[in-house]
């Protein structure tokens, strides 16, 4: 007989579902390019053990980093665990790899879509099964051009509260 969990890990289930959406979107871009006006702001934790980026970028962004996938990117490769991409930082192309579990925010301002992963438990096995929490301040900074950018403010972060029924 299999041991049943003491609670349903909704946090982990939502995280996995949204990572699946991001994986599907990025895979389509890898195969066909960015459609129309679509572009992405992706903030990720540079402290995640599977993030692979140049030492100088990790030194500059020791907590988290925001990249922009829009005008110039090369060799986007997506797999089950994450994506790798070459971006231009001040005329210096750099390859980086970002696991889906390291993503903090994903925003497509062209359609006012955004998602912020809520992190609540440092160990990753809390009551909701949420992944580990990096330090707060999800605004992030960094980009494909090497200039500082703030997180986009015109995109909407989706909240499940708007879909809940009142009793």
Q: What is the number of strand segments?
A: 7
Mean pLDDT figure: 76
Strand content: 25-35%
> Which shape, going by the Cα principal axes?
globular
How do the strands line up in the largest sheet? Answer: 2-1-6-7
Helix content: 10-25%
Radius of gyration: 17 Å
**Structure class:** alpha+beta
Textual characterization of the structure:
- This protein is α+β, with helices and mostly antiparallel strands.
- The chain is built from 2 helices and 7 strands, in the order αβαββββββ.
- It has helices at 10-32, 55-60, and strands spanning 40-45, 64-69, 73-78, 82-88, 93-99, 103-108, 113-116.
- The strands form 2 sheets. It has a 4-stranded antiparallel sheet, with no helix packed on it. Strands 3-4-5 form a 3-stranded antiparallel sheet.
- Strand 3 (73-78) and strand 4 form a beta hairpin.
- The model is unreliable at 121-167 (pLDDT under 50).
Keywords:
167 residues; alpha+beta; four-stranded antiparallel β-sheet; three-stranded antiparallel β-sheet; 7 strands; 25% strand; globular; disordered C terminus
Summarize this entry quickly.
The protein has two helices and seven strands. The protein is of the alpha+beta class and 167 residues long.
């Amino acid at each position: 007989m299999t041991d049943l969990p003491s609670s349903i890990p909704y946090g982990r289930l939502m995280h996995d579902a949204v990572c699946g959406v991001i994986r599907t979107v990025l895979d389509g871009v890898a195969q066909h390019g960015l459609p129309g006006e679509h572009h992405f702001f992706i903030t990720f934790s540079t402290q995640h053990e599977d993030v692979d980026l140049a030492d100088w970028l990790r030194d500059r962004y020791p907590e988290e980093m925001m990249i922009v996938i829009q005008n110039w990117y090369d060799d986007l490769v997506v797999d089950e665990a994450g994506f790798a991409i070459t971006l231009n930082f001040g005329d210096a192309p750099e390859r980086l790899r970002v696991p889906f579990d390291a993503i903090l925010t994903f925003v497509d301002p062209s359609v006012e879509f955004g998602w912020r992963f809520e992190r609540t438990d440092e160990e990753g096995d809390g009551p909701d099964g949420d992944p580990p929490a990096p330090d707060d301040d999800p605004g992030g900074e960094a980009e494909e051009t090497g200039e500082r950018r703030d997180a986009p403010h015109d995109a909407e972060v989706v909240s499940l509260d708007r879909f809940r029924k009142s009793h």
